[in-house]
Design a protein that fits this description.
Elements (H helix, E strand, L loop, with lengths): L1 E3 L2 H13 L4 E6 L5 H13 L2 E6 L19 H11 L3 E3 L3 H4 L18 H4 L3 H16 L3 E5 L3 H13 L5 E5 L19 H6 L1 H15 L5 H13 L4 E9 L15 E8 L2 E8 L8
Parallel strand pairs: 1-4, 2-3, 2-5, 3-4, 5-6
Antiparallel strand pairs: 7-8, 8-9
Helix pairs in contact: 6-7, 9-10
Length: 286
């Protein structure tokens, strides 16, 4: 595995791959790798001969009161995991390599970013889309792989690719879960042992709603009432939102249907967690 920190050497390395006729896949990450990230590498290997993983804690997507300074960082350990899983190039730039002094241009999302996670994290998705657009321009991949757990992020990236005419196939891979159903997340490392147990309520709530849908209940009001009751039973979990959404617009869906998204965000202790399921789609918890 090559570890590259600067843009020009990365472009030179990728030019070699292109001359050999290789398809290139990109797996963007913030690091703190876990099995969820590595499963994205597996999907990338199925679609391309050259797999590039970016390892970059993007300051632009963290708010002033968020966890940028303490976000888990383990470049050496991440490198070992990436290499063992088959990453060909690990792109690990410093912030000043991607954001040069005096940079002024960002990618602003539309109203799709104003609700759900965007309401809680103003400016977050501008930071996400800006860094992803930069990575797309630097790597010029044929395909890029993202995780379903960050469903609003993935939906916005698909919209950006469509609206800005990036010639890139976007694949959204299913969420990888612990045996007890908790979605894998780098932020799970923040959870105390009691809070880790409480975190199970997020997946319990959305799975209960999914099961009710599978049993014939399509009323959003009924499904959300069921999910809210599950969360309320865990008194130390603070629910931020729990909703049935249209998969294309992320607007609230009055009636649940195949393909609708059930998404949840909650604070467990001081840690904000998110999760979702897509109705009618296979889930790694099934």
């Amino acid at each position: 595995m090559q570890v590259i920190e600067r843009i020009e050497p990365l472009r030179i390395a990728l030019a070699e791959s292109r001359r050999g006729g290789e398809r290139i896949a990109l797996v963007p990450t913030l690091g703190a790798l876990h099995e969820g990230h590595l499963a994205l590498v597996d999907r990338a290997r199925e679609r391309a001969a050259c797999v590039v993983m970016s390892l970059f804690v993007n300051p632009l997507q963290f708010g002033p009161d968020e966890d940028f300074a303490r976000y888990p960082r383990d470049r050496e350990g991440d490198g070992r995991l990436a290499e063992a899983r088959g990453v060909d190039i690990l792109f690990a730039p410093q912030p000043d390599e991607l954001y040069r002094a005096g940079h002024t241009v960002t990618v602003a999302p539309n109203a799709l970013a104003s609700r759900w996670d965007g309401a809680s994290r103003p400016g977050h998705f501008t930071g996400v889309l800006t860094v992803v657009a930069k990575l797309f321009n630097i790597v010029q991949p044929d395909v890029a792989i993202f995780g379903q757990k960050d469903i609003q992020q993935a939906t916005l990236i698909r919209a950006m690719v469509r609206d800005l005419d990036f010639p890139i196939e976007i694949i959204v891979a299913p969420t990888v879960r612990e045996p007890d159903g908790v979605a894998l997340s780098s932020r799970n490392a923040y959870l105390s042992a009691p809070d880790r147990k409480r975190a199970r309520v997020l997946s319990r709530a959305i799975f209960a709603m999914r099961d009710a849908f599978d049993g014939g209940e399509h009323s959003t009001v009924a499904l959300e009432s069921l999910g809210n009751a599950v969360v309320r039973a865990e008194r130390k979990v603070q629910l931020e939102y729990l909703a049935v959404m249209n998969p294309d617009t992320l607007e609230p869906a009055p009636v649940a249907a195949q393909g609708s998204i059930i998404a949840i965000a909650a604070r467990v202790g001081t840690t904000r967690l998110i999760d979702n399921v897509i109705l009618g789609a296979p889930d790694s918890s099934a």
